[in-house]
């Protein structure tokens, strides 16, 4: 990519840089704090305003010493670059220490794990914009999706509107609800690539729901991933919540990748359920998750709370759900408590959450997205923008997951063995190699799924990692052609 940006941030011969792209780059400035400069401002201040990619790189390395210190808080092996955070994170040293100390103390004191972890929930909930009664600890995303979906009072003929890019963690409880209660699952087919905006999603869902209603169907809930695990597209929660509210639906977000990546205020978003992983981007121990449950009426979502029963619990309140701004009972306690828990796991998750708070959740989000944006631009520059399954230009759709087609012969992406070979060779043939993964992506109009590559960019990466990854992938793509 080449071109110049003038001091008003206006495009000067940069065919690929849209207004939205410039907005995103401005956004990078506010996220990183007062000292941060946007690339445009940096370019305007310097003598050598150069290419857009150079500006993005300059922005990324500006705080390099800080992010190197952050990287050193982790024990990741250096024999490869870990870029599959979307599958599993890595506990920072402080969480490992907390886990070890609490585990030892538990053994020494013959401790048990009864309770609902209220004190731990109180320490974490404000960072997610909710109260402790609205933040439960679950076993992982899948467990949270089961709590959410299987606890609702489904009736035969209810319709769940969801997408064709959902993960098994959400699909499985939806399928159980279908077979057990006669719920109908209706899927919106999602677009891929850069040619989409947040409005694409509000229109898709709204039109789909209107179509179902016109057939006399009783649409009751919307379930969507934010972001999807296949393309990394951040289906926009705030905008989709407007669709949810206009159709008076129950909202269930598979937010596996949200905790630790995106700094969202769930009280302000007003979602009924957001099921996130503790063990991915939030870098807590395995078998930890964070489930947000709307438990009081806030201005963000005036709809009544859905009737819901706990399905996996030792705490059952028969109280009705509140109709006011005051909770009638601690719903998160009923999700969190189920017999004796392994409390050191959750203590370690909280240590990781508190580390994120001390670094700054918005700062981490901004850095992750800046890395991801830099990667997406570099892919677009080398392979062409059409290689991307993840959109790059609408900041509302941007996550730290990037999926694309790396092959020189574009049709090779249909051959899953080739995609697997790419993933294993990018690990084995480069020193250090890269840990990434495949994603089997349904693409509208394609005869079969595309086997794209999926890359995660997180707080232990830097611009050099992206540069070397892109060069290595390019090199491997030529060798495999
Ligand atoms: C979108 C999505 N949902 C659910 C899951 C399942 O996650 P967990 O292992 O936390 O249950 C994943 C795992 O990668 C995912 O990407």
TrEMBL record:
Alphabetized UniProt keyword annotations: Aminotransferase, Pyridoxal phosphate, Transferase
Alphabetized GO MF terms: transaminase activity
Residue ranges constituting the Aminotransferase class V domain according to the UniProt record: 119-469
Top-level lineage group: Bacteria
Pfam families assigned: Aminotran_5 (PF00266)
Cofactor: pyridoxal 5'-phosphate
Cross-referenced InterPro entries: Aminotrans_V_dom, Aminotrans_V_PyrdxlP_BS, PyrdxlP-dep_Trfase, PyrdxlP-dep_Trfase_major, PyrdxlP-dep_Trfase_small, TAT_signal
Record-given protein name: Aminotransferase
Organism: Comamonas serinivorans
Organism ancestry: Bacteria, Pseudomonadati, Pseudomonadota, Betaproteobacteria, Burkholderiales
